[in-house]
Amino acid sequence: MRRAPDLDRLTQELFAEIQSDEVPYEDLYETLLQYYQTPINLNAATREELRSLLLLNENQITTLLNHRQANGDLLSVYELQSIEGYDLRTINRILPFVSVQMSGANSSRGTLWQRIAREDNNALYLRYERVLQERQGYTPPTLYQGRPTTRYLGSADKMLIRYRVSHTKDFSVGFSLEKDAGEPIVWNPNNGQFGADYVSAHLLIQERGKLKALALGDYQLQFGQGLLLSSGLAVGKGAETITTLRRSSVGVRAYSSLLENSFFRGGALTYQVAPTVQVTGFVSHKNVDANLQQTQDSLAQYDEFTSGLLYTGFHRTASEIANRHRLAETLGGGNATYTSRDGNLAIGVTGLFTYYGTPILKRPEPYNYFEFSGRENLALSLNYSYVYRNFLLFGETARSSGGGLGTVNGLLASLGSSVDAALLVRHYDSDFHTLYGNAFSENTRNINETGVYIGLKVRPVARWEISAYYDQFRFPWLRYRASAPTDGHDALLRIAYTPTKTSLLYVQLRQRLKPRDLASTDLNNLYPTRALPLPGEQLRQSILVYYNTAPTPQLELRTRMQASRLRDDDGLAWRSGYVLAQDVGYQFNRTLKLTARYAIFDADDYDSRQYVFEQDVLLAVSVPALYGQGTRVYGLAEIRINRSLTLWLRYAETRYRHQDVVGTGLESIQGSLRGEVKAQVRMKF
Amino acid sequence: MKHCLPQYISTFCFFVIVSGVLPGAGVRAQGNGPGVRGARAAALGNASVALAGEVWSMGNNVAGISEIQRPSVGFYAENRYFSSALNVGALTVALPLGRTTAPDAGGVMQGTEGAAPSLSPAPAPTWARNGVVAFEAQRFGGVLYNETRVGVGYAYRFGQISLGARADMLQISIEGLGSRRMVLGTLGGQIEIVPRRLSFGASLYNLNQAKLASYQDERVPTILKAGLAYRPGSQVLLLVETEKDVERAANFKVGLEYRPVPVLAARLGLASLTEQASAGIGVLAGAFQIDYAAAFQQALGFSQHLSVSKSWGK
To answer: Largest alpha-carbon pair distance within chain B?
Structure first.
């Protein structure tokens, strides 16, 4: 019986504070949490799989593999304590995500159907969410200049059905149906709509002799450092300054998340052609959201084009529905990976060809000058990973159509039993186009960036850990909202203290300098004579203090204070935001657990908004952006009705001071309160 | 909102002190400051105020020369951004005064023959009985502008504390304007807070605020440096340091040195004010310690540093 993973604490340990609205964090975390749902078998896991946990350093992985080789299979997870480099903190961190099973062949446990039928790790989730107040988008349309105004076409309910049964290194079968708030339920098979707006299903079979993986339906791929193919298993810069730097080459993975655009649909197959060589081939075809436009100019290159893909996954208004699944995307490719017998050296080549049914033509802005345009993109890459004693070298270099190059190379080093260091250098040309890549970068995409990252982790005395990183980056070409080449830096320092097994205290400081165009009024006041509107040196400093303790086994207390301030340029005023949150969790008995939070926030404006992690129903993550003045409260009940049935109920509300409208546009609510309810049922069979 | 800021502004000050990050100011040249000594310090982002026991301590923190046990000489050359007008050359000699009580392999201290050998595996470090004296000559610049400096320093160690002082004769010459000479005084101190694990160093350069010119009351910069050296393990050295010139923004520096084997060292460093990252290697070749460092500044490019030092006798 594994301990229930404290995913909240995991997110605290792995992720830095959020500073961007461009990334759908909630779905990203969900992808990661999904990954952690299938525990890794310590007796069968390869070096690469152990790395993908992000919780072990290279030395610990090496000693575990050596222990396995010398003494055979582990008999219990508690045997980890006898392995060099495994302190209690490490063991406690990985315990929820690992298991110890006999490493015999899957077929020894019966046929595939028997194994699926008997598998314990299966669950059907039903989830329902709704904002209680009426939002603008759900009111009857009014007339504006004789035409009805835009409204959402569906109901305000958000619903999700998901089923998955999986066993590590054996199989995974599942499906998901989702309807976002505001999306109508349409049954139109001709248009690929089967009720719910988002439908996904997958079948993945692994380790059948030389057939290492076969995926049908929705799947994801991750090879090398994720420069061409990355499946959301990427944390990037965070409070964990060493292990999250490197991406794990996990290959073909089942897809059961809700990110509506970041998966492949079709088939993928990994085959072992030699004891040390695995080859993967894959094809995918799906229709993605895009805004199609007709060319007005008869001499133009294309009659019809799209100015870019839409990634939100929302299909609520008439125009969103018009853009739904308008762009056919076909892609195919392959990967061949050589792994030495001891697992220390891995070299892989990857190819990816993407073809769009309609050419892509970004808006003619200067910052889009080098962006991808056209119908097709061919990208080829070479990746490597090599362990030498206490050093781990890794990297990937790729070239895309048109000659753009991208490269990312890193080094992780255990410099002693208590010091880890990391170095990562990356360079992505302004015309390097990776449409599914998500390698390490400051930008949300791997384009137009050069940078050097240095990370350090020190455990000076027992129970104390200091982690820090310094990342310097340069953007040689313009970016959205930065109309000149710019450079900046990002630095983080975290001091963590774990006085006991059940408590954690840390202070985290971060500073980021990332230039951004100034508002025209600021520009005129600051530089009345400046001919060129150079971007302002936007500086953001933030602090996070977090304390988590369990005075008794039933009671858990969490306090979180975070504050940040930012300044658009030297000499301009600081704007700041602040949140103080207190959480209480109490496990009444085996049946009922209650968690609640009361938080007070005060942020000057949208730029100084605060993102605060919240506990949510299992497999969901909630990270609301708080700005203005007010309170944020939520309560969550987890009720275990019996062995197979668990119910979660959650109510959350934000109350604002001195505001009579909450939100903007179609999401706006009259009044100063926004409350939402969420319920989820899990059935295990 | 504004009224609840002070509490965390002060926290930020703490942050800034320990992490060495600040919005960068302009890049500084030598500018009559103490400059860099040794490619080891250069590779460590010049976070060198807590380093000791090498001939380059003469320029980085004069208190550090008190730990030198054998006569040593060092030569250092530096080139910034491939411009010959920014070259630096330095020659340093350090001489221990009086006998060092060298521990022998058995751990038996001199003068205690016949006593039971001590059980500590590592012999206690020793230092010259009457302190260490050092001489240095340094030149910065090219034909149009150059600075020449001749210095003498002395440091003495008692218990866990070292103190040092140094006097410099600094001559500044500008083509067509002639030259000017002045005398500068420098003080330094180092404390081993936790033996062989944590030490602290501070140094004050030009405490007399020597005057360069009456015009605009131009003075040689007065610079105070303070920093920590921390050894989490036998192979790793971490350094943090802050440096404040009276007339410039504060600089924060961090350095990391990794010595997998005794004869080889790899180093990394960062400096916030110049936004400069540096890296280097050091090799112990027989009696010679050879160090090389390269530093990169995003706007100005590469600097290179090379130093060679040698010690004599037992």
So the answer is: 73
- The single-letter code of the amino acid at A449 is E
Mean pLDDT, chain B, integer:
82
Using 50, 70 and 90 to split pLDDT, how confident is the model at A524? confident
Quote the distance between the C-alpha of residue A497 and its chain's center: 26
Type of residue at B237: L
Sign of CA dihedral B107, B111, B113, B119: negative
Spatial contact of A44 and A67, defined as CB atoms under 8 Å apart: no
Cα–Cα distances (Å) from B304 to A682, B252, B301, in that order, read 63, 21, 10
**How many Å apart are CA B305 and CA A249, to the nearest integer?**
39
How far is A595 from A606, CA to CA, in rounded Å?
Answer: 28
CA–CA separation, A96 vs A454, rounded Å?
30
Minimum-distance CB partner of A454 among B5, B258, B268: B268
> Could you tell me the CA-to-CA distances from A260 to A9, A200, A234, A346, A668 in Å, in that order?
27, 9, 17, 32, 25
For strand B223-233 and strand B236-245, is the pairing parallel, antiparallel, or unpaired? antiparallel
**Per-residue b or e along A61-76, where b marks 16 or more CB atoms closer than 10 Å to that residue's CB:** bbbbbebbeeeeebee
The first and second tokens of residue B110, run together, are 């001199």
CB–CB of A458 and B238 under 8 A? yes
- Predicted pLDDT at A271: 95
Contact state of A416 with B4 under an 8 Å Cβ cutoff: no
Q: Do B277 and A419 touch (CB under 8 A)?
A: no
A98, B161, B164, B207 from B188: Cα distances, Å: 54, 11, 5, 11
Query: Does A470 touch chain B if contact means CB atoms closer than 8 Å?
Result: yes
Strand pairing report for A40-41 and A98-99: parallel
What does the alpha-carbon distance between residue B110 and residue A595 come to, in Å, rounded to a whole number? 69
Q: Which of A416, A491, A576 has its CB closest to that of B21? A: A491
DSSP letter (8 states) at residue A255: -
B38: region left, alpha or beta (phi > 0 left; psi from -120 to 50 alpha)? left
A201-205, A409-413, A523-527, B32-36: segment of lowest average pLDDT: A523-527
How many CA atoms lie within 13 Å of B162's alpha carbon, on the beta-carbon side? 36
Residues from chain A contacting residue B273 (CB–CB below 8 Å): none
- The residue to which tokens 């890193």 are assigned: A410
User: Which has the closest alpha carbon to A500: A554, A422, A576, A553?
Assistant: A553
- Token pair for residue A9? 């604490």
Terminal Cα distance for chain B, rounded: 66
**Chain A nearest CA to B177, separation (Å):** 36
Nearest to A543 among B8, B230, B298 (CB): B8
The verdict on a CB contact (< 8 Å) between A421 and B5 is no
DSSP annotation of A11: H
Is residue A620 within 8 A of residue A604, CB to CB? The reply is no
Beta-ladder partners of B95: B133
Cα–Cα distance, B92 to B74 (Å, whole number):
5
Q: Which of residues 556-615 of A touch B (CB under 8 A)?
A: 563, 565, 570, 574, 576-578, 602-604
- What are B287's two structure tokens? 């009696």
pTM over 0.70: yes
Residues of A in Cβ contact (< 8 Å) with B4: 578, 602
